[in-house]
Amino acid sequence: MSSQDRTGSRRAKVIPIAGLAIVGALALSGCTAENKNGWLPSTRETTNHTAGIIDLWVNTWITVLIIGLITWGLIIWCIIAYRRRKGATGFPRQTSYNLPLEVFYVLVPLFMVLVFFHFTDVQQQSINARVDHPDVTIDVRAKQWSWDFNYLQGPNVPEGVYDVGVQAQLDGTAIDKSKFPTLYLPINKSVELQLNSRDVIHSFWVPAFLDKKDVLPGVTNYMTLTPTALGEYDGKCAELCGEYHSEMLFNVKVVTQAEFDAHLASLKAKGQTGDLGNKYDRNPNLNQK
Predict the structure, then answer these.
(1) Which of these, 26, 169, 194, 252, could form a disulfide with 233 (CB 3.0-4.6 Å)?
(2) How far is CA 140 from CA 216, 224, 264, in A?
(3) What is the enclosing helix (H) or strand (E) of 214?
(4) pLDDT at 5 over 70
(5) pLDDT at 289
């Protein structure tokens, strides 16, 4: 057997082995919980929206990965099949104006974009849909650099109460998260958050909820969700809003109805009844309600 034949034989063995190793690595990497969630900072059961968001994210990545493998496979095939052979002279035969092929590579990407747009729009509409009569309505007031929470009277709130947030202190020492403003939400109850700003543009972000909304002065944005897992989650402002933006932190506690009622009762006992509304808004250009 010639040296060239032995080289070709080795290549024929190495390529399938390498291909199997790559496929095996990809398959094994999909076994962890993090990979199943697409490395998103949440689980499927956190709110009524998180499962749909995770499915959209993961399925989109699977689709683009398959498309990428096909594309790279075609590129590599062209490199090998149409490489310059030994002893070849001049340029290879040139071809152009293959109308069926051109129509194919225009229509297929267009179809893919429309499919992605459709599923994204469906999920976005589901996230943004408001509930006619939510169980709990909370007026969230962002301010430099903390949060106020007004629990408005409604089906699960017999009397309106409020909680005033104090700015977090990041001074290099251990963080005491118990001092952060804390938003209480009852599990399995529909919640509408009315997002308002007292001064500049902020952004309400709870990473575990896989959703965030801008908080704009003079405009009320809405976030509607149903918490479905007990626990404590981190929240923060996601819009640069001034010198102490990084200290605009808060907690979200998803609790049982009894714990939620006890929290409201504790606020009432402190005399924090009614709501602060726009009383302490600092932007003179805000629309008065």
Answers:
(1) 252
(2) 12, 13, 15
(3) strand 211-215
(4) no
(5) 45
